[in-house]
Design goal:
By secondary structure, this protein is mainly α. The chain has one domain. Helices cover 90% and strands 0% of the residues. It has two helices and no strands. Helix 1 (9-54) runs antiparallel to helix 2 (61-145). The chain is rod-shaped, with a radius of gyration of 34 Å. The protein starts with 8 loop residues before the first helix and ends with a helix.
């Protein structure tokens, strides 16, 4: 019995490769979004800490002014991070769509391979059954001829 040979095996390999590349790109985009989210969280913690320090007892006007400038800088950085995060989320969504398309393309060829393989092995089983029936019929005919 010959083993099953899928004519589109190369296409399947390319689709699998495309899916892995799309998955890696999606992972990179997700990592960027995670880093930006962590930076936003750190910014929020720094803003809370700066607000506490600004109004602590024993601080003078220069400390208050420095705290105000720091709070303004944190606010500007937070806005920049929000804009970057929004852009990164859009890129991640585009990468997710590409990944879903690559996965669908790979699944399509995989399903085709599975169907062809099932048809092939069903035909092989039929041929084997037919060959066994012929052997049994031949043995029976030889036994009757004796």
């Amino acid at each position: 019995m010959r083993s099953f040979a899928f004519k589109l095996e190369r296409v399947l390999e390319l689709r699998e490769y495309d899916e892995k590349v799309a998955e890696a790109v999606l992972g990179e985009k997700t990592a960027v979004c995670s880093r930006l989210t962590l930076a936003l969280e750190a910014n929020a913690r720094a803003a809370v800490e700066a607000a506490r320090e600004r109004f602590r007892p024993g601080s003078d006007a220069s400390d208050h002014r420095a705290g105000e400038l720091y709070a303004v800088r944190l606010s500007q950085e937070r806005e920049r991070l929000f804009k970057s995060l929004a852009a990164a989320e859009l890129e991640r969504e585009a990468a997710r769509v590409d990944y879903v398309e690559a996965t669908k393309a790979r699944r399509l060829v995989t399903k085709l391979r599975e169907r062809e393989e099932a048809v092939y092995y069903k035909a092989v089983a039929r041929e084997e059954t037919k060959a066994m029936d012929d052997l049994a019929a031949g043995a029976h005919a030889r036994a009757d001829a004796r």
